[in-house]
Amino acid sequence: MILDKFRIDGKVAVVTGANTGLGQAMCVALAQAGAKVCGVARRSCAETQAMIEKDGFVFKEIIADLATTEKIPFILESVKEAFGRVDILVNNAGMILREDAENVTEEDWNRVISLNQNVVYFMCQAFGKEFIAQGSGKIVNIASMLSYQGGIRVPAYCASKSAVMGITKALANEWASKGVNVNAIAPGYMATNNTDNLRKDKDRSEAIIDRIPAGRWGTPEDMSGAVVFLCSQASDYVNGFTLAVDGGWLAR
Ligand code: NAD
Fold it and tell me: Which of 112, 121, 122, 181 sits between 20 and 30 A of 65, alpha carbons compared?
């Protein structure tokens, strides 16, 4: 039956940036859909853990800084040690730095590219090898409206999120025939820490809402349906696609 294909009972899912915002909501959604969830974060995921365990679902936190690729083998080993296998990877951890383009330093550029692009690629590679070996796996990368558009005062973020969409297509082409789905979600303007400053700027916030056909900021929970779909059997023939969850922003 069709709704059964959206269930991910017994699957093991890894979500990076699990302590807040979109990552937290996606952990909750995947757990509710049946997965055992490993949340990766620099800081405690106690809040996420409580949200999941109160309904009797399973969550394990893995503390690791993803500023560089160094901790990737540790993350993979920790997941396998905890649950014996892994089926789903959601590359969600990301950062944004705002600065006039002419003043961006190389150090800040590299920080953003390292986390948002290099770590995403090498997480895909490390987990992808496992998925190829077992003949199945789902990868969901978190892209952005700035995978499509240029944005203002966020050139490194734009470059990295454009790369996320490219990486997603490149890996899908190589891995679709091996049973591994690689897709992305491009969130629109969502109310999280990431957009705190934008939302505090009344004029910018109003201008953004005016341009969103749905007429509101997105919420972390708006990601739930899309992530469960892309991590489930229901999306087995969806490869290399970036699904916008944006209240219609891109349609405008
Ligand atoms: P957020 O700031 O609440 O979450 C970012 C997450 O990344 C946090 O969990 C944070 O701890 C983690 N993170 C940052 N640096 C890290 C590091 N060095 N090591 C490990 N984890 C690290 O914001 P969010 O909106 O939930 O962002 C989640 C993802 O969604 C990001 O990739 C972001 O670019 C993307 N996104 C957000 C929006 C939006 O409007 N909020 C729009 C498009 C894309």
Answer: 181
pTM over 0.85: yes
pLDDT, the chain, mean: 98
pLDDT digits (tens, 9 = 90+) for 127-154: 999 999 999 999 999 999 999 999 999 9
Using a 6 Å cutoff on CB, does residue 164 contact ligand 1?
Answer: no
DSSP-derived secondary structure for 48-93: HHHHHHTTT--EEEEE---SSGGGHHHHHHHHHHHHS---EEEE--
Q: Which CATH number fits domain 2-191+220-244: 3.40.50.720, 3.30.70.420, 1.10.150.120, 3.10.180.10?
A: 3.40.50.720
Domain assignments of the chain as residue spans, ordered by start? 2-191+220-244
